[in-house]
């Protein structure tokens, strides 16, 4: 690594990137270069990394993340950290990158890198976080309206991907419920109610743990989801089977106000402090039940996926299913529809290859 200096500036070279530091500024600037040549506009404010982090109420990334729900905040922070690392070869994270310094050449190059490294859905999630962070930089007075518009003017990444995850079969649902019903402890009743709810109502696990007893109406089976993604509240209606599982759980839980689903102690009794379950506890519980029931590993979201795809396969209207699932757009719901795949499988079976197995 070589350095040049004069009375005003220090230039440090490390191929293939250049680091530029103004000794009279609190900013450290990183530049991309394939040749190691100095960028001529060295006096302009192109800083990408801040030596001194901004206060949270002045940092665009922090302000953006604070506007999100807990579940979204975690994933979008990871996205911002990843993009900050890509822009600075790992020298910055979401809170040390100077988002207001990004220009179109930076964001366009970042979009190209995301296209190479991620699926279209994931790349677009990253770009959404980028655009919203830039918008907060503009709102905080750190970018001009024109600068913001140019940097955020990025096309959506196009492309189709095979959906991740899987749907659970009826036999797997039965095996899970049998395992819960064979567990005489309060955990058995609670877990049966949770699995029934997630399969027949489709709530996300972050939504499940935020439910309170007062949100449920046993007489009608109506359940209010008040802490939904993007603050879009909705109602869920439990069918008779799920309502039966919920009734057994409430009998063991009692009618003390508080979280609908609470912890169970090592003795198999309801925790009388009525401590709320966490999202991780839901994940762990499903993993444990899958092992005990002999069911292939699945994620909490796979229960939601099964809820949507099974309803669509049964002929439910896609607009109604979208509302039940809390989707803003029907196209999101359509990604869970397995009927096109079943149609392709049926079509493939119409062809015949004259082959006999050797073994």
Relevant terms:
359 residues, alpha+beta, five-stranded antiparallel β-sheet, three-stranded antiparallel β-sheet, 46% helix, 9% strand
| Helicity, as a percent range | 40-55%
Number of helix segments?
Answer: 14
Helix-strand topology string: EEEEEHHHHHHHHEEEHHHHHH
Mean pLDDT across the residues is 85
DSSP strand tally: 8
Beta-strand content: 5-15%
Principal-axes geometry comes out as globular
Task: State Rg.
Answer: 26 Å
Structural class estimated from helices and strands:
alpha+beta
- How many angstroms separate the termini? 64 Å
Describe the structure.
Helix content is 46%, strand content 9%. It is α+β, with helices and mostly antiparallel strands and 359 residues long. The strands form 2 sheets. A 5-stranded antiparallel beta sheet has the order 1-2-3-4-5, with no helix packed on it. A 3-stranded antiparallel beta sheet has the order 6-7-8, with no helix packed on it. A hairpin with a 2-residue loop joins strand 2 (9-14) and strand 3. Helix 3 packs parallel to helix 5 (145-152), helix 6 packs antiparallel against helix 7 and helix 7 (186-201) runs antiparallel to helix 9.
């Amino acid at each position: 690594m070589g350095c040049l200096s004069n009375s005003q500036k220090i230039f440090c070279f490390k191929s293939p990137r250049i680091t530029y530091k103004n000794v009279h500024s609190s900013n450290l600037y990183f530049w991309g270069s394939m040749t190691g040549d100095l960028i001529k506009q060295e006096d302009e404010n192109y800083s990408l990394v801040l030596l001194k982090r901004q206060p949270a109420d002045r940092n665009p990334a922090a302000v953006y993340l604070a506007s999100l729900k807990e579940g979204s905040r975690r994933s979008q922070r990871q996205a911002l950290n990843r993009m900050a690392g890509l822009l600075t070869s790992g020298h910055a994270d979401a809170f040390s990158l100077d988002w207001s310094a990004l220009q179109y050449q930076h964001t366009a190059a970042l979009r190209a890198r995301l296209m190479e490294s991620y699926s279209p859905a994931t790349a677009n999630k990253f770009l959404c976080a980028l655009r919203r962070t830039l918008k907060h930089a503009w709102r905080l007075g750190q970018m001009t309206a024109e600068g913001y518009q140019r940097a955020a003017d990025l096309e959506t990444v196009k492309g189709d991907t095979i959906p991740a995850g899987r749907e659970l079969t009826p036999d797997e649902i039965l095996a899970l419920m049998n395992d819960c019903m064979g567990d005489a402890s309060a955990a058995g009743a609670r877990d049966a109610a949770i699995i029934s709810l997630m399969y027949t109502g489709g709530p996300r696990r972050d939504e499940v743990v935020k439910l309170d007893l007062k949100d449920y109406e046993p007489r009608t089976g109506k359940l209010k989801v008040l802490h939904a993604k993007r603050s879009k509240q909705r109602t869920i209606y439990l069918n008779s089977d799920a309502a039966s599982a919920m009734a057994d759980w409430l009998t063991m839980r009692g009618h003390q106000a508080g979280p609908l689903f609470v912890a169970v102690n090592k003795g198999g009794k309801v925790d009388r402090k009525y401590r709320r379950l966490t999202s991780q506890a839901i994940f762990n519980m499903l993993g444990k039940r899958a092992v005990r029931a002999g069911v292939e590993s699945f994620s909490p979201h796979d229960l939601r996926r099964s809820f949507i795809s099974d309803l669509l396969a049964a002929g439910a209207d896609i607009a109604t299913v979208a509302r039940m699932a809390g989707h803003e757009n029907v196209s999101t719901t359509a990604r869970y529809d397995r009927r096109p795949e079943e149609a392709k499988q049926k079509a493939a079976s119409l062809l015949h290859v004259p082959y006999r197995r050797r073994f």
